């Protein structure tokens, strides 16, 4: 997508130059017209409108009938972990698998791996070292923002966001602890909003006993991948929460 975008921008710029030379750059109305056409085409070429930054509570991922497996590198901390950084459109739809020519390459992020093991652990079975999860997230989502963030930039942006949005610390300061008790979803969302200054979206799942539990927290991020913003749109669906949900231990 990035290459296509760059090529089309280059062609338009060359066209603009040829046309303005042809008009000897004297006819300012004509020049202005060409400039407008070029600007409009360039803004239409935008890849996505914002990111969802999604964190998951490991206790809730594990406490379901699918169960979970601790990574080969050891049990992750009792903290929220990154699920993903997902480019999205403000109409609610989203791009995916944008560039098969840019596969996951772990050698580009070797300096980030120990932080990824701690903050972006994979809990799926069989027990694994996280590479399959990271590769999936890069190829499905990361390749759709590659015009802004290369692989290193993408994973680094997610890790920086994780330290900026310290959900467990925010919730615990509000008296909301992973202790297996039930908490009101609106109270959880308000605590997070007070902590980060923006309204989050909460998704829940169901434990083996059929109780709804706090599973994922979505916050929105600008197209640079660095600043939090109000969500232009929340994900489709109701997030599967009931008014009060369990916050299981991990
Ligand atoms: P997504 O839901 O982002 O499209 O895909 C998540 C994929 O990553 C699924 O195939 C899931 O099995 C795999 N995966 C591996 N580890 C984890 C994990 O810790 N959490 C989640 N949510 N998915 C994981
Ligand atoms: P689920 O159906 O479990 O909510 O989502 C499955 C997968 O679809 C997610 O892991 C993610 O890869 C993708 N997905 C679901 N909802 C959204 C969304 O609103 N935006 C984006 N970008 N991806 C999503």
Automatic annotation (TrEMBL):
GO terms for molecular function: hydrolase activity; ribonuclease T2 activity; RNA binding. The keyword Repeat does not apply. The active site is at 83, 137, 141. Keywords: Disulfide bond, Endonuclease, Hydrolase, Lyase, Nuclease, Signal. PROSITE patterns: RNASE_T2_1 (PS00530), RNASE_T2_2 (PS00531). CDD domains: RNase_T2_euk. Residues 1-25 form the signal peptide. InterPro entries: Ribonuclease_T2_eukaryotic, RNase_T2-like, RNase_T2-like_sf, RNase_T2_His_AS_1, RNase_T2_His_AS_2. SUPFAM superfamilies: Ribonuclease Rh-like. One of its GO terms (biological process) is RNA catabolic process. GO terms for cellular component: extracellular region. PANTHER family: RIBONUCLEASE 1, RIBONUCLEASE T2. Belongs to the RNase T2 family. This is Extracellular ribonuclease LE.
